[in-house]
Amino acid sequence: MTESSAAPVASPTIKIQVSGLKKAYGDNEVLKGIDVDIANGEVVCVIGPSGSGKSTFLRCLNKLEDITDGTVIVDGYDLTDKKVDIDKVRQHIGMVFQHFNLFPHMTALENVMLAPVQTKRATKEEARATGQRLLEQVGLGEKANAKPANLSGGQKQRVAIARALAMNPDIMLFDEATSALDPEMVGEVLQVLRDLADQGMTMVVVTHEMGFAREVSDRVIFMADGFVVEEGTPAELFGNPQQPRTQDFLKKVL
Ligand SMILES: Nc1ncnc2c1ncn2[C@@H]1O[C@H](COP(=O)(O)OP(=O)(O)OP(=O)(O)O)[C@@H](O)[C@H]1O
């Protein structure tokens, strides 16, 4: 590998290029060779049965997991290149998990301000102004001074989304962001995701919300047993699935 290999290498229209991605935990190979390209502004939903490798796939996209084999190129940075500064790459990527992991002793606004200030991307004043704007964007402008304990699950998740947006990412990864929520709060969080999709954010969304996948995504990927079994537009995948495994899965969940 040369020094220059740490520089961006991909086309700016392709945000994420995954080729031959394998991930094993010991002898257990949970990703068995995934090939996916995701374009700028594309919204991709990843669906599939429990244990099929969806979260592991997502976590490989910002190297929360070490990649066993294959390549993952994000915003032109090859994550398998040891010279690539992963913290720098992660500044392009916002990630939202099932559990919100907010700091309980900080207000909603302080949680949102934290990363830009800590990484010196913004002064405190700038981060405060941006944080307030982002809380308003997710419908929580009036909750800026509330501590997480005084917010509902859906509100906490919306703070977590605002926190991810505070680093001004150009890719957002959502790992079952609504799975821990009471049903009545799912809609308010999905609405924030819809708004982000409308604004042209590149998004990869691991979800069990088939209605959301159907309505919002540009492309749906169906995974099973560590493989991409089938992918297509929502109309193709939900309306006319080709693979028996996809058909069986959709029969169960729709
Ligand atoms: N840190 C880990 N160590 C060992 N095995 C793991 C680890 N993380 C995940 N696995 C295994 O990898 C497989 C895929 O898990 P993953 O969480 O990616 O599936 P998933 O499709 O997201 O499932 P779900 O829909 O239930 O969240 C599972 O068999 C799981 O037990």
UniProtKB/TrEMBL annotation:
Pfam family for this entry, one: ABC_tran
UniProt keyword Nucleotide-binding, yes or no: yes
UniProt keyword terms in alphabetical order: ATP-binding, Nucleotide-binding, Transport
Matches recorded under SMART domains: AAA (SM00382)
Keyword Nucleotide-binding: yes
All residue ranges annotated as the ABC transporter domain in the record: 16-250
GO MF annotation, one: ATP binding
Entry protein name: Amino acid ABC transporter ATP-binding protein
